[in-house]
Amino acid sequence: MKGSISAIVATSAIVFAVPAAANVILNGSFEGGAFTGGSSLAQQIVPPDSTTISDWTFSGDPQARPTWYENGFDNNLQQIALTAHTGNFAVNLADGSVRNVSVSQTFPTLPFQEYQVSYWVGNYSANIGPAPILVNITDGTSNTILLSEAPATDAPSGTWVRFASNFIGDGTSSTITFTENSGLTYVGLDDVSVTSVPEPSTWAMMLLGFAGLGYAGYRASRKNVALAA
What we know:
Layout: H1 2-16, E1 42-44, E2 57-60, E3 67-70, E4 73-74, E5 81-82, E6 89-92, E7 101-108, E8 114-123, E9 131-139, E10 144-152, E11 159-168, E12 173-180, E13 188-196, H2 200-228
Helix pairs in contact: 1-2
């Protein structure tokens, strides 16, 4: 019986030792940077800008005014209290007019590795409709490997919706770009992550672990039956 218990413990270690995939996006929650909004709790960003928020570059119409905001910031047009999905800061890509605004970051990838991109889009009921963000991932030669739209439905202020898509790495780096040009007052973006999807060999290892647990339990039950007899 002692040997069976040891086998169960050892096999359990195999099953649950699979590490969580690391996020290759830097500053995905937009907490880092040189925030100088002062008492207004908002920092206007004028494209092109690659210094205000660490690791992110803003581009698009130079007259666009996306904002990097802190919890409690009241939007000047609608006077709504904005709250980040997590932490203290988030980005509002909309500026109340139909201007193209983009924020992007280049991150490392492995060829033929599957990844999942995850992000949260914020909306509020005064938008009277979806808050769309176009998501584009390109490889090192600017070929598009993922193109999707995240149309968060209208909802009360502070409501966030998660979107996720999978893609295959095509080279040693990729660039993710979020674009907004809906003309809305507020389209929030927060908690961006890109993580690798477990390879088949990892799943095979986990299945092998579960099979080992079943076999150890089977041996233990047979031994107990034999002792009872």
